[in-house]
Design brief:
With 366 residues, this protein is an alpha/beta fold. It has helices at residues 2-20, 60-72, 90-95, 132-140, 195-204, 209-214, 225-228, 247-255, 265-275, 312-324, 353-362, and strands at 51-53, 80-82, 127-131, 154-171, 190-193, 218-219, 233-238, 258-260, 278-282, 294-307. It is globular, with a radius of gyration of 23 Å.
Length: 366
């Protein structure tokens, strides 16, 4: 009788070990779901209607959301997209399994068409897209997430190449040939400046946003075309995607006579170090009037990510679906590419075991 009990126990342990292995639909650890609110009925991964946190339909994370939705459809999943789970809140929403933020029919505030931000699903957000630097900062609790503390429950599923350059330009009529002139310049300027970049660049030149405001300069929001028009100085991320975040370059490069500035090498090194960026060159001719390469720094990836409580089988499927349908990224409003050598890494943020299993099977990981 005792031997029969031992056999039963051994079988039970073997089954448990098998189910706990990557790709068999369980969380990473028995405590992985601790503190995660229950999903609402009729929605979620188990119901084949998972909720994805993205941004507006022409925003970078919204375009990726639509790719994820299309890639999973052949496998019987109807991905529900939140098109306003965006900005710095994105990793908080996914990491804490929150419901989508409050919505109204005019979320775009006249800048983004109402149809680009439809009503969100009524379910907790289980995975999403964000900038790779945001994911790293949220995982470690640094930068914008320093007051939050680390969200060590976040897990990478895929990193999609999506280059975005820091571009610095001035209107020729402003008479600015070097940002060093900002400290002592005469006459008011209208400036557009990414806040993170400004926090590194202005002090390098002995200036500050507060000091420039005190001198009579004004700072315009990059996302509002009417307010940013006719800016004298632009320090902002960009590429040639006509998304709300980057279309400032669409407009300014065509409307104004711009001079593109080369930042000093030591400043670029500091930007790369402090903000987790890569040293890259803006290719010749990216923008009108830019007739030579410009050394700069760049954001390099859009992370698709989830949490430790995501079933390993689903994480495996997400990695597989995106790999097998890489061509979906070619036909979006943005500049995306699936790179097998980079898809499985964002800093030191851990891969979800289910995704890691797929990449190892494909030879993308050792």
């Amino acid at each position: 009788m005792r031997s029969i009990r031992l056999v039963i126990v051994a079988l039970a342990l073997a089954v448990a070990a098998m189910l706990a292995s990557p790709g068999h639909g369980v969380a990473d650890t028995p405590s992985a779901t601790a503190g995660v609110p229950a999903q609402l009925p009729g929605i979620g991964i188990a119901a084949h209607r998972p909720v994805f946190g993205g941004a507006c339909k022409t925003c970078p994370w919204g375009a990726v959301a639509d790719v994820v939705k299309a890639a999973l459809a052949p496998y019987g999943y109807d991905v529900q997209v939140c098109y306003h789970c965006f900005m710095a809140e994105a990793p908080r929403i996914v990491g804490d399994a929150r419901l989508p933020p409050p919505w109204n029919p005019h979320m775009g505030n006249g800048v983004i068409p109402d149809s680009f931000i439809p009503e969100p699903p009524n379910g907790r957000v289980e995975f999403g897209a964000t900038a790779d630097q945001f994911l790293i900062a949220a995982y470690y609790g640094t930068g914008a997430y320093a007051k939050d503390g680390p969200r060590k429950q976040l897990r990478l599923l895929a990193n999609i190449a999506s280059p975005v350059y820091l571009i610095v330009a001035v209107r020729r009529s402003a008479g600015i040939a070097d940002l060093a002139q900002l400290k002592d310049h005469k006459g008011p300027l209208k400036i557009v400046a990414d806040a993170d970049m400004a926090g590194v660049i202005f002090p390098y030149y002995g200036a500050s946003m507060d000091g420039l405001k005190a001198a009579g300069d004004t700072f315009a929001p990059a996302l509002v075309p009417a307010q940013r028009a006719d800016s004298d100085v632009i320090i902002h991320y960009g590429n040639l995607a006509n998304s709300p975040e980057f279309n400032i370059w669409y407009e300014a490069s065509q409307r104004d006579d711009l001079v593109y500035l080369q930042l000093p090498d030591d400043l670029l090194a500091k930007l790369a170090h402090d903000l987790g960026l890569e040293r890259r060159d803006i290719p010749t001719g990216l923008l009108r009037g830019q007739d030579q390469p410009i050394h700069t720094v760049a954001r390099t990836g859009t992370a698709i990510y989830g949490r430790t409580d995501m079933p390993a089988s689903f994480a495996y499927l997400v990695a597989k679906a995106l790999d097998q349908q890489q061509d979906l990224f070619e036909w979006t409003v943005g500049n995306y590419a699936y790179n097998r050598y980079r898809v499985a890494k964002v800093g030191d943020v851990p891969l979800h075991p289910g995704a890691a299993r797929y990449y190892r099977e494909r030879g993308y990981l050792p």
